[in-house]
């Protein structure tokens, strides 16, 4: 871990796009090769298990991809070095958050990750509304994290150390469960606290959206898993409450997706739908559900980041996020349309993607938890396909507007970005066990 | 020859070779009574393991060879049909992916690895249905893929429920302990094979290019549901699910047969006839004769692909219109093609010694043998009659001697590629029933029926054969008023208003719910309460503090304290 941190800070020194991307790619390769066998201490108080290992790998991967896809900032903006600095510092803070083993330090790092994304949104966003989006982002997440700070301090006081993996569950009762999980549920975001995400996605530049959907949301899942160490398994009514709100909320979100005309909002809402399944799985807390949740987080991280970069490619061509403006792109940019189709089918969990295997794992754990979930799950599965296809058919198929006839087809870099997202989604199905 | 035309011929040859190999392998496997299962474990966790399974036995091999044979003919035929299309390579790639998904489905007796083919079929068929860039194709594609998606979700849930068994290899199981599993698998089969509540997508999928329709409706997409249920049949035996399936299948047959008699769009007539035959297969399956259902599926695949290929040429000849009222006297201009068309139609209605005769007659009589219910028997009879009626009607429409064609039609007996490809499938259509009957159905089926039942099918068929020409102008024959006949016609030609069930009202309901959720929750309570109301409340509070500092109160307080201070100091 120290090596990773050191080499990442070396990236900070260089501050040149090509070198940083190459360096990050190298780090992620080396990192993938060093999978921890169990819970391994790497250095000082950094410890890795499969959960944090997988999420760090995801962070490195998505950060690399997001740097690749923000070439427009690099070429046009004066402050491109600063942009790079923010991205790398975000990557560093995320990696540290995922690997630290002290709950208090974890809390501090968890909050630190908020700063770079806020800077990205406020600094490089597209519209004046980004101020409001930044406020939403800040206040929603801060609202949950103050109780978390109190309970984390209380916990470490009670147990005598702030070690995250201590097995003695000390907290009981609804209030402590609520305090421990609220910040992460908002981060996830669970249905009801998802408004900040939609606004942030709309206003963020492409790298911001990719990192936000790809990695930042996963902090919620990661935090929940870590905090459940502190909780007695008796969550009182919390489990049923979170499960039912997420299930029906996810369904409502998937229905809402059908009314959006803005591609980025649609993709962001689809993340809420996917994450709602993760919330339930985490609260069920069986072996299958936790592993399924991790796999879903990985799959969704890569897939939604790919979709956001595709949306950005369309935006760079048409200067609009609207699907109506993009209509008929299949006839102008057929290769990009193929990419859209592949990513969207991955989003709706078509085989052979890890999205499908994670969905199957989640379905198994949910159905074996309670048969009554079958009804909403049918609808959820159906509508999550519906909005993916709706996005494809609205934005790619049909007769195109003649003003777009001068658009160019995809460049090699864009194809590289899509395949960086598509390959892991499809290749990992053969090595699902590799992730655990 | 450019690369694009080469790719059509390449795939055609490849598939032909595969078909020859598959057929000989199937005969050998049938002769030896041999089954080969290859199981490749992919994930194994907590005593559940998911694997990629491949099964090779006479059933999968013969179906596989039928599929690739038809594909071979159709990719050659596409060379003619898609001649002037700008996106030839996209078309052939999608078509081959579609067939590949079907092959994956055929060889997989495992619910998890089955998904590869099952979902793949749904998605590639969507890409093919929306191949033409117009709104109707877009809508038809959406209807198709979403109807199929219901089946996908059902399979997913069946997988989830099946996890209790520790494996998804349903082929090697004796029974399932959760009745829900059978229900979901049955539902999946019904959506894929367009049984009654989900029938609307099948005629809508006619928006695809004709070679695709020929493939979809003969051997691939729509038969996938029947095939799944054939494979799953031993787990469904003697359950309520099969009885429900029987009723749905009979309704499908009658509905589609009735509708085909009133439809004017040529492709839709053939599509509805597919639907009625699918109902027949499901019916045979649900009374317990899976081999016979499979037999009929193969012979149906052969004659239906020929019918569609001929229909495609007919559409081209009449300047792209699909309205069968503009097609007539085609037997003068293209005798070979119309020969194929009518022979296959005769096969469809069960003319002696054509392939439909072997399979359909057997299916009907065995159903009579197994069915105890007089009402259901009556429905079977009606369905048999309707089949004859619409087959004859299609022939009459294409081959009356009165010319209704447009003034600038380019009638011809089309080029060599079409003739060769059509006659290859035609040959198989003629002989497959005979071949299949002798090679794969080892035990002879003795049907013992009272003479009344034995002849009732024949009588029904003959009667409807006589009535069919009269029904070309039904309001005159039945003596109805214009309004009444319009109501009857529209109900019949709109498939008993089934499409409304899966398009208009479902969409409306969904959009209403989502409108409510978005207005009330996302833009209502959730937006107004925590963020907006919170900020306004805090703004108001801080306004108060600010006011309290600006007003007389603060200055008066300061003044009094100052005065008090001076007063104290003075003292």
UniProtKB/TrEMBL annotation, chain A:
Reaction it catalyzes: a ubiquinone + NADH + 5 H(+)(in) = a ubiquinol + NAD(+) + 4 H(+)(out)
Family membership: Belongs to the complex I subunit 4 family.
Lineage per the UniProt record: Eukaryota, Metazoa, Ecdysozoa, Arthropoda, Crustacea
Top class in the EC scheme: translocase
NADH:ubiquinone oxidoreductase chain 4 N-terminal domain boundaries: 19-97
Record-listed E.C. numbers: 7.1.1.2
InterPro entries noted in UniProt: NADH4_N, NADH_UbQ_OxRdtase, ND/Mrp_TM
Protein name, entry field: NADH-ubiquinone oxidoreductase chain 4
Main function: Core subunit of the mitochondrial membrane respiratory chain NADH dehydrogenase (Complex I) which catalyzes electron transfer from NADH through the respiratory chain, using ubiquinone as an electron acceptor. Essential for the catalytic activity and assembly of complex I. Core subunit of the mitochondrial membrane respiratory chain NADH dehydrogenase (Complex I) that is believed to belong to the minimal assembly required for catalysis. Complex I functions in the transfer of electrons from NADH to the respiratory chain. The immediate electron acceptor for the enzyme is believed to be ubiquinone.
Regions that span the bilayer: 50-69, 81-100, 106-126, 133-154, 174-198, 210-229, 241-258, 265-285, 297-316, 328-350, 362-392, 412-435
PANTHER family assigned to the protein according to its UniProt record, in alphabetical order: NADH-UBIQUINONE OXIDOREDUCTASE CHAIN 4
Gene Ontology molecular function terms on file: NADH dehydrogenase (ubiquinone) activity; NADH dehydrogenase activity; ubiquinone binding
Compartments where located: Mitochondrion membrane
GO cellular component term of the entry, any: mitochondrial membrane
GO biological process, one term: electron transport coupled proton transport
Membrane topology qualifier: Multi-pass membrane protein
Gene (UniProt): Nad4
Keyword match Membrane: yes
Keyword line: Electron transport, Membrane, Mitochondrion, NAD, Respiratory chain, Translocase, Transmembrane, Transmembrane helix, Transport, Ubiquinone
Domain of life: Eukaryota
Residue stretches making up the NADH:quinone oxidoreductase/Mrp antiporter transmembrane domain: 104-375
Record's keyword annotation contains Nucleotide-binding: no
Automatic annotation (TrEMBL), chain B:
Class of this enzyme: translocase
Protein localization: Mitochondrion inner membrane
Top-level division of the source organism's lineage: Eukaryota
Enzyme Commission numbers on file: 7.1.1.2
Ranges for domain NADH-Ubiquinone oxidoreductase (complex I) chain 5 N-terminal: 43-91
Domain NADH:quinone oxidoreductase/Mrp antiporter transmembrane positions: 108-387
Membrane topology category: Multi-pass membrane protein
Entry's Gene Ontology molecular function annotations: NADH dehydrogenase (ubiquinone) activity; NADH dehydrogenase activity
One cellular component (GO) term of this entry: mitochondrial inner membrane
Main location: mitochondrion
Keywords assigned by UniProt, alphabetized: Electron transport, Membrane, Mitochondrion, Mitochondrion inner membrane, NAD, Respiratory chain, Translocase, Transmembrane, Transmembrane helix, Transport, Ubiquinone
Alphabetical GO biological process terms: ATP synthesis coupled electron transport; electron transport coupled proton transport
Catalysis performed (reactions): a ubiquinone + NADH + 5 H(+)(in) = a ubiquinol + NAD(+) + 4 H(+)(out)
Domain NADH dehydrogenase subunit 5 C-terminal: 390-570
Annotated TM spans: 50-79, 91-108, 153-171, 177-202, 214-234, 240-262, 269-287, 293-315, 336-354, 374-396, 417-440, 452-470, 550-570
Family membership noted in the UniProt record: Belongs to the complex I subunit 5 family.
Function of the molecule: Core subunit of the mitochondrial membrane respiratory chain NADH dehydrogenase (Complex I) that is believed to belong to the minimal assembly required for catalysis. Complex I functions in the transfer of electrons from NADH to the respiratory chain. The immediate electron acceptor for the enzyme is believed to be ubiquinone.
Protein name according to UniProt: NADH-ubiquinone oxidoreductase chain 5
Source lineage: Eukaryota, Metazoa, Ecdysozoa, Arthropoda, Crustacea
